[in-house]
Amino acid sequence: MFNGKRIVDLTMLINENTPNYPGDPLPKIEEIATIKSSGWNEKRISMNTHFSTHIDAPFHMLEDGKKLSEYPIETFFGDAVVVTLSNFDAMLSDIKEKDFVLFCTGQSKKAFTSTYYDNAKFLTKEIAEKLVAKKIRGIGIDSFSIDENPWPVHKIVFKHNILIIENLMNLEELVGKRVELIALPLKLDNADASPCRAVALI
Fold first, then answer.
1. Nearest partner of 101 among 164, 54, 186, 170, judged by Cα
2. Is the pTM of this model over 0.90?
3. Residues in a beta bridge with 33
4. Given CB 3.0 to 4.6 Å as the disulfide criterion, which of 13, 63, 71, 97 pairs with 135?
5. How confident is the model at residue 51 (pLDDT cuts 50, 70, 90)?
6. CATH number for the domain including 144?
7. What is the number of alpha carbons within 13 Å of residue 46 lying toward its C-beta?
8. How many angstroms separate the CA atoms of 83 and 133, rounded?
9. Per-residue pLDDT tens digits for 115-147
10. Which residues are catalytic?
């Protein structure tokens, strides 16, 4: 609990079994010191900026796009509406300017299995245009991507500086609700994306 609100962790666990986007270099977590050998424990982590739960900035796909480090810190806190692809139109009137809109597709139930990348559901260009018209702050999804190559939805929303959060978890219990979202990226210079710790307050 925080200030009387329940905290729901929306972040995917990071380890060497965490789903890695096909074709990306595999992550590596290695032990570089132990208490026995050095007097302390320490690990080195190697992973791409789109690993696990992460935030994409427009620079990810637009040459002159805004970089993650160019967004003020308050951008990563805000109200969020949790929807499904089937109830999106019914909930459209509940979406306000500067909201995050989080899509629960059920894909996260397959995280850490060999079928995580199978039969995913994606946002359409029509949904993207409706969200742009609402002047939202960001889109989130409980899957590895909001769309697929050639990435039309990414490009539509990136042109309006809308952030994208992918690989969210535990959205099922929040469908139809308005929550407070905190999704803090690492403070990486010139970043196209960053792993983040995402939580909802309800």
1. 164
2. yes
3. 42
4. 97
5. very high
6. 3.50.30.50
7. 8
8. 17
9. 999 999 999 999 999 999 999 999 999 999 999
10. 60
Which residue is it, tokens 């690990």?
43
Q: Which residues contact 188 (CB under 8 A, 6 or more apart)?
A: 49, 68, 69, 194
Q: Rounded CA gap, 49 and 167, in Å?
A: 13
Residue 109's domain spans which residues?
A: 7-15+49-201
Q: What is the pLDDT of residue 16?
A: 86
Structure confidence by residue, pLDDT tens digits, 18-30: 999 999 999 999 9
Q: How many Cα atoms are found within 13 Å in the side-chain-facing hemisphere of 196?
A: 29
For 37, the 3-state DSSP assignment is helix
**Tokens representing residue 87 in the block:** 């109830």
Residue 188 in tokens:
């990486």
Two tokens at 29?
Answer: 């977590």
Q: Closest Cα partner for 87 from 70, 102, 108?
A: 102
